[in-house]
Design brief:
- By secondary structure, the protein is an all-alpha fold.
- Helix content is about 70%, strand content about 0%.
- The chain is built from 6 helices and no strands.
- Helix 2 crosses helix 4 and helix 3 packs antiparallel against helix 4.
- The two termini are about 35 Å apart.
């Protein structure tokens, strides 16, 4: 998985530059460096800080220092150059054109109905998954507590239908 992330830097840089050029960006080198360093840097920083706590507890689950050095070497030795190469080729391509033209004159947005408000949408969108999980857990846990056999696949088929 790590090698896949490292070698996909070419595609990340390429598409980052295509989107950047679509929005009329001109500082492509800055965008390429941000693409190569920002997201992996934040993830590595969080991982390193958490690993420091594990080292402090002298746990055997801590990642060895040599492995961290190998990660940084893969990041700067393989991923960053691949992102820069992908960024170069992405910036050389023509900018992505929008499929439709937008009107320069803004039009008035009509007021929303009560059921389109964010609070209502959040509540309605959360009731269905909560209800499904609640019913499943109720049947599973009640069958465990009452020492009954739970036919999970049959019940799941009935819920699916």
């Amino acid at each position: 998985m790590l090698f896949l992330f490292v070698f996909m830097g070419t595609f990340g840089g390429y598409y980052s530059q295509r989107v950047y050029k679509m929005f009329k960006g001109v500082a492509w080198k800055s965008n390429a460096l941000k693409t190569a360093l920002l997201f992996p840097g934040v993830i590595f920083g969080i991982f390193f800080i958490l690993n420091l706590f594990i080292w402090g507890e002298k746990s055997s689950g801590a990642v060895p220092f040599g492995t961290l050095v190998a990660l940084v070497a893969m990041w700067f030795g393989v991923s960053v150059p691949l992102v820069l190469i992908g960024s170069y080729f992405g910036y050389k391509k023509k900018a992505v054109e929008h499929p439709v033209r937008t009107n320069q004159i803004p039009r008035q947005v009509p007021p929303q109905a009560w059921y389109m408000q964010p609070v209502v949408s959040i509540l309605i969108g959360g009731i269905l998954p909560f209800g499904a999980v609640f019913v499943e857990l109720f049947f599973i846990l009640s069958s465990i507590w009452l020492q009954q056999v739970y036919y999970i696949f049959g019940f799941l088929f009935v819920v699916f239908v």
